[in-house]
Specification:
The chain is extended. It is of the alpha+beta class. 55% of the residues lie in helices and 12% in strands.
């Protein structure tokens, strides 16, 4: 963009405003508005668009603009609207802006004649141009056409539809009554299907597809109307500013007095279905005076009539009656329609109150008795039956008791109100269906060749509160938008192909995922809603929760809290959902979704109206019941899905649209106040975006949206060119111009009749052409140069053509020679063909010789004989080939010779096969013998293993019995020691008590002596009494000891003995226990002072000493130091250290020494272990093997189910461990041997570990040795022995014997 050039920037009211770029930010631009100099604002960079040089220039087709974007589109529509040009083209799409007043001569008969037979684009944009294009396409292409009219309420869809129908019936009608009927059917449909809303005074509350059928002569022969999704909720409820359907007010305002009295009509204020909305009539000044005062509501009398140039309730009632007469409805049928409408009004006035009985039901109020009578009379029903059906519901039993039993369930007041409203909706819905049916009957046709369909349906809707109706309408628009994208792109591609551009297909963003969200089977919102309707207890909250659960990760669906509007954020998650449509996100409130989706009545009400005494009412429901599905009848309350019915109708409609050609009319509402000459840019821009027009511009950006015919470019720029260039043909002129400018060939394409530009490139071209004169002179010079070059290239092309012709003649001569050569070759081949074929067959036979040789070489017997036969056959084949090459043989001779050789080869093949089979049989017998031998060996091995397992079981049983005996002996010894310990403690306690008393006497004597010493002048005066006191104390002490009774042996009576005798006897008993013996033995070993020995000296003494007593003392000191070291290491370990690597033995082993019964005894009466010599003598150096499972402390919490379990193996040589092995589940085995790995091995003695008392822990030597060998323990021990690090044990001795 040039500096100072105007751009379009976003504006909250006007949509876009003109301004200039002042500054450029990272992702925004600073804009200064042209109308507000000095003020600036920031705008997102992707919402700022270049503007045309002349912003007031208007074009009929927006694709003719230099800059193709939503801002220039909006500005062009604005400028045209200000000049009463309400129609604008975007390619072949028509944009129609509602003017809200009659533009003179815009739709006159003269205008209709102007557009007849004219191509699109030759006359200004008009709805007639689209209608005529559809007719011409139908006639030329022999294909039905569709015109899709869409837009929001109040945009003028219905009016444009009427103009299309009027144009077709006027221009191509037969001049019969049928044409007028098609046009006159619209007022009747509008009366029953249109209503006043906040946005439109004549809003169609249903969609319709009107088909105009043509015969083979392209004349109108009839029509057909299909309707979709009538808004039934409006019958019972409207907002304050809206009205019910027009027919109710027109009947109240325009009906004659006798009809009013016959149907008991009055003002709209007296009917519930009307008085909750607006109750004023549409009327002009003249017709307002004609309406009687008793028919006007207080609101009408106070505020006056509603004003609209196209609506007048009293006048429209008369016009509707005239339309009924023209389309063939007689007075009786007309009164039937009015009677049912009045019956619906009276039905709404029935009120209910709680019944006084205990049943909990309700009953009509007394004030409603007259209304109930009127309603029953107008609908042909029995008054009592109507009262019962409204206050009760009939249920048919299907199980338990008599099947089919009728049960009447009383209804509450709220349920009765819902039943009344449901009946009103059902009656009016059937009535509207009947009106459409009668309209279709009024213009029948026997056959038609083609049709032009006009679809009038609501556009994309989004309000502050959106319900089921908006959901269905927006779902329909999603489907239509998908069809719109496909069809528009297809036409664009067809134009490119017609002009021969060779452009790749233009792609677009598909909204199929949003459509699937709504209509997919089982998981689609409509199917989820139907499933909710079939439940015994329906709930809107449960339906909403199910939608969120099924699509919790769907991009198109989210919860209301994520809405951009504050009012939607107050909606709970189970009360609504947001769907991201192609036009924007819409928040739907799911209250009454389930109720609105069910189009069925309670059984009692349905039976009631089906048995009406009025034939007209009865036929309304009989026709609809005949079309019911049997599956739906069997469902809950004869459930009829509104959503699925609409989906089925929509799919049928889209199939019909896809089978036809299509044109599009996008209706736009210029302002919300519905007044003329007021253009609200932001609101219109939103409508253009919702209608997909902005998306069309984006799609065209990928193609060549800007296009201009050659003659227009020629006329535009010939004034800038000299006369020499203006004499050129327009196409050659444009081509020379583009080549001279050096434009990139990717930015434009030459078609057959026009040139196509990429977006924005036409503006660059125009800028170059309108530049300064010096540049233009340079441009002319380039054009002349290009013309000279192109003409020189033509001369070169002619010369090349002559050379090419010469080469072609040469080529043909060469080809003739080649043909002659080929013919000669064919004759020669025909002559020698039998010999050639024979040689080929014989050569094929010769190839078998190699295979025969391979088979023969594989034989084990008779190889020489078979080899000779193969050689003879090969010699015969070579002889035949030589004969065929040297002599001329006939085909028969060759065949005969070949046949002989084939038979010989087959015989040889048979012999080889038999030989091979014999050898295979012998081989099979050999394999059977080998298999039998292997089976015998397996049986012997199995028997050996069985015996070994029996021996193992026997040894284990012996080990278990031995363990139990040792355990029993240990328990008895411990009990005896405990008993003696207790008796000794009691005796010692008595002695301590006596000692305490004696010390008290001595302390008293000491204090007395000290006191006497202070008094005496000298120490010589003190009397010496120590000797006497001591002897006295000793005699007293011995005399005061009381005998302690001991248990008599062998059941004898207890004897009283003195203290000395008892102590002597206790010492004799305790000296028999192992702990006392161990203490004595330890005292005996104290002759070796080892406390100052170093660790290495202890280890060397253990490994080399021959002194058994010294060896035992060194082992005792060594293991004592190991215990001290490991206790210190455990106390001072790091807090986060992995204890797994420090574990020397399973925790159950290392903790055993702290068992309560051992801890107490060791603390009070510590006793060292037995001397090594005595222990070895007593245990005879027993070799014992143990295996226990363990879990590393670090894994106790990682794996609570203890799946990661390891095994700890130990080999005890006498009392001390000799070999240790750890098998971990997730790392290599760890092997340790005594001497080399003392610091990592278990330092406890066998008795201290408690392993002998663990059931099942002891294993056989063979089991330990197998695991030790499998894990590489032999090599590990060997290395330790060779490096002189291993301590001499049973294992080292066995290894040395094995190596020797």
């Amino acid at each position: 963009m040039e500096d100072g050039k105007p751009v379009w920037a976003p504006h909250p009211v006007d949509g876009f405003q003109l301004g200039t770029i002042v500054d450029i930010g990272a992702d925004s631009l600073t804009i200064e508005p042209l109308k507000q100099k000095g003020k600036t604002f920031l705008a997102p960079i992707n919402q700022v668009f270049p503007a045309e040089d002349d912003c007031d220039k208007i074009v009929e087709d927006n694709c003719s603009l230099m800059y193709l974007n939503e801002a220039t589109l909006l500005n062009n529509v604005r400028v045209r609207y200000s000049k009463d040009k309400i129609y604008t083209f975007v390619a072949n799409i028509l944009i129609a802006v509602n003017p809200y007043y009659d533009i003179p001569k815009l739709y006159s008969p003269e205008t209709i004649k102007q557009y007849q037979g004219k191509s699109l684009g030759t006359l200004p944009p008009h709805v007639y141009a689209i209608a005529d294009k559809a007719f011409r396409d139908m006639r030329v292409l022999k294909m039905s056409q569709s015109i899709i009219v869409s837009g929001e309420s109040g945009a003028g869809k219905t009016e444009n539809t009427k103009f299309v129908l009027r144009y077709l019936t006027t221009s191509y009608g037969t001049g019969q009554d049928i044409d007028e009927r098609i046009v006159e059917a619209n007022p009747l449909l509008e009366a029953f299907g249109n209503a006043k809303t906040v946005r439109n005074n004549n809003s169609s509350r249903f969609g319709k597809f009107v088909e105009i059928h043509f015969n083979e002569k392209n004349s109108v022969v009839g029509g057909f109307v299909s309707h979709y999704l009538l808004e039934k909720s409006r019958i019972c409820m409207q907002s304050k500013e809206e009205r019910n359907y027009h027919i109710f007010y027109r009947l109240c305002a325009g009906a004659s007095e006798d009809i009013r009295q016959k149907f008991h009509l009055s003002s709209p204020e007296s009917f519930r279905y009307l008085n909750r909305g607006c109750t004023r009539f549409f009327a002009s000044k003249e017709t307002d005076k004609q309406i009687p005062q008793n028919r006007k509501s207080p609101e009408h009398l106070k505020q006056g009539a509603l004003k609209d140039p196209l609506l007048d309730d009293q006048g429209d009632f008369n016009r509707m009656c005239g339309a009924m007469k023209k389309i063939g409805l007689d007075d009786t049928e007309k009164l039937d329609l009015f009677r049912v409408v009045a019956g619906v009004l009276h039905l709404g006035n029935i009120d209910f109150e709680e019944a006084g009985s205990t049943s909990g039901g309700c009953t009509p109020k007394k004030s409603s008795s007259q209304t109930l009578e009127y309603c029953a009379e107008l609908l042909g029903l029995d008054e009592e039956d109507l009262r019962v059906s409204l206050t009760t519901r009939v249920m048919l039993t299907t199980a338990g008791g008599a099947k089919g039993t009728v049960i009447k369930v009383p209804l509450k007041v709220e349920q009765a109100n819902n039943a009344r409203d449901a009946l009103a909706k059902a009656v009016y819905g059937r009535l509207f269906d009947h009106v459409v049916k009668r309209v279709n009957q009024c213009f029948p046709f026997e056959s038609s060749s083609f049709f032009i369909g006009v679809l009038d349906i609501a556009g994309f809707e989004y309000f502050e509160h959106n319900s089921f109706e908006q959901f269905c309408i927006n779902y329909c628009n999603e489907k239509l938008q998908q069809f719109f994208n496909e069809r528009i792109l297809k036409e664009e591609q067809e134009l490119y192909q017609k002009e021969g551009l060779g452009v790749n297909e233009v792609h677009y963003v598909d909204n199929q995922d949003c459509i699937d969200l709504v209509e997919a089977k089982l998981v689609g919102i409509l199917d989820i809603l139907d499933e909710e309707n079939r439940l015994p207890q329906t709930s809107d909250q449960h339906f909403t929760d199910t939608v969120h659960q099924k699509h919790k990760d769907h991009f198109r669906l989210s919860i209301p809290r994520k809405s951009k509007l504050t009012v939607h954020r107050n909606i709970r998650d189970d009360e609504g959902f947001i769907i991201r449509h192609f036009a924007g996100a819409v928040c739907y409130e799911t209250t009454q979704f389930v109720e609105k989706n069910n189009d069925a009545l309670h059984t009692s009400l349905e039976y009631l109206v089906c048995e009406s005494k009025d034939r007209f009412v009865r036929e309304l429901f009989e026709n609809s019941n005949n079309s019911k599905d049997s599956k739906q009848k069997a469902g809950k309350l004869s459930f009829i899905s509104v959503g699925n019915k609409f989906k089925t109708q929509l799919n049928i409609l889209l199939e019909k649209l896809r089978s036809t050609g299509s044109s599009f009319i996008r209706c736009v509402k210029p302002n919300l106040k519905m007044v003329s000459r007021q253009f609200e840019g932001a609101q219109i821009l939103s409508q253009l975006q919702c209608s997909g027009m902005v998306s069309v511009l984006d799609l065209m950006q990928g193609g060549f949206p800007s296009r201009a015919p050659f003659h227009e470019l020629y006329n535009m720029y010939k004034k800038y060119m000299p006369a020499k260039l203006t004499r050129l043909d327009p196409r050659l002129f444009c081509k020379a111009l583009f080549k001279a400018l050096g434009l990139n060939e990717n930015d434009y394409k030459f078609g057959l009749t026009r040139v196509f530009f990429r977006p924005g490139k036409f503006a660059e071209f125009d800028q170059i052409m309108k530049s300064d004169p010096d540049h233009l002179a340079e441009l002319v010079k380039r054009v002349n140069k290009w013309l000279l070059c192109s003409r020189w290239k033509k001369v070169q092309w002619c010369a090349l053509s002559v050379i090419k012709l010469k080469n072609k003649m040469k080529y043909r001569a060469t080809a003739c020679i080649k043909m002659q050569k080929t013919v000669r070759m064919w004759l020669c081949r025909k002559k020698h063909k039998p010999r050639i074929d024979g040689l080929v067959k014989v050569q094929t036979l010769k190839k078998r010789i190699d295979k025969f040789t391979e088979v023969v070489s594989a034989l084990k017997e008779g190889k020489q004989e078979m080899s000779k036969q193969v050689q003879d056959l090969e010699t015969s084949i070579n002889a035949l080939m030589a004969k065929m090459k040297s002599t001329v043989m006939t085909r028969l001779e060759i065949e005969k010779e070949h046949e002989v050789l084939v038979k010989r080869s087959e015989g040889m093949l048979g012999a080889l096969q038999r030989k091979k089979q014999e050898e295979e049989e012998a081989e099979r017998l050999r394999r059977i013998q080998e298999e039998m031998e292997r089976e015998r060996q397996r049986a012997e091995e199995k028997e050996r293993r069985r015996k070994q397992e029996e021996d193992d079981r026997r040894l284990k049983a012996e080990m278990e019995a031995k363990r139990k005996q040792e355990e029993e002996a240990r328990k008895k010894r411990e009990e005896e020691e405990k008993r003696l310990q207790a008796e000794l403690e009691m005796q010692l306690a008595a002695e301590r008590e006596e000692e305490t008393q004696r010390q008290a006497v001595l302390e008293q004597e000491r204090r007395d002596r000290e006191l006497a010493m202070r008094i005496a002048q000298s120490e010589s005066e003190l009397i010496t009494e120590e000797t006497q006191l001591d002897s006295a104390l000793r005699s007293n002490g011995m005399a005061t000891v009381t005998p302690v009774p001991l248990k008599a042996t062998a059941g004898g009576p207890p004897t009283n003995i003195t203290m000395e005798e008892m102590v002597k006897e206790m010492c004799e008993l305790l000296s028999r226990g192992p702990q006392v013996q161990a203490t004595k033995a330890a005292v005996g070993t104290k002759k070796y002072e080892l406390s100052k020995w170093k660790y290495a000296e202890l280890r060397d003494a253990i490994n080399t000493s021959c002194d058994i007593e010294l060896l035992a003392a060194c082992r005792e000191e060594f293991h004592r130091r190991l215990k001290v070291y490991h206790a210190w290491k455990s106390k001072n370990k790091k807090r986060n250290t992995d204890t797994d690597s420090e574990q020397r033995a399973p925790k159950s082993v290392t903790d055993y020494e702290c068992a309560p019964f051992m801890k107490s005894s060791s603390q009070q009466n510590p006793a060292p272990a037995l001397p090594a010599r005595q222990q070895e003598i007593s245990m005879n150096r027993q070799q014992r093997y143990f295996r226990i499972p363990f879990i590393r402390p670090a894994d106790q919490y990682k794996d609570p189910q203890n799946k990661k379990k390891g095994w700890w193996y130990a080999h005890f040589d006498g009392a001390w461990i000799a070999r240790q092995m750890e098998l971990h589940p997730d790392k290599q085995p760890i092997m340790l041997v005594a001497g080399k790995d003392d610091m990592e091995m278990c330092e406890l003695s066998l008795e201290e570990t408690g392993l002998t008392r663990k059931r099942g822990s002891e294993i056989l030597p063979r089991q330990f040795e197998e695991i030790w060998e499998r894990c590489g323990g032999i090599q590990y021990l060997r290395n330790a022995v060779e490096s002189k690090q291993a301590r001499p044990t049973y294992a080292t001795a066995m290894l040395q014997n094995l190596l020797q």
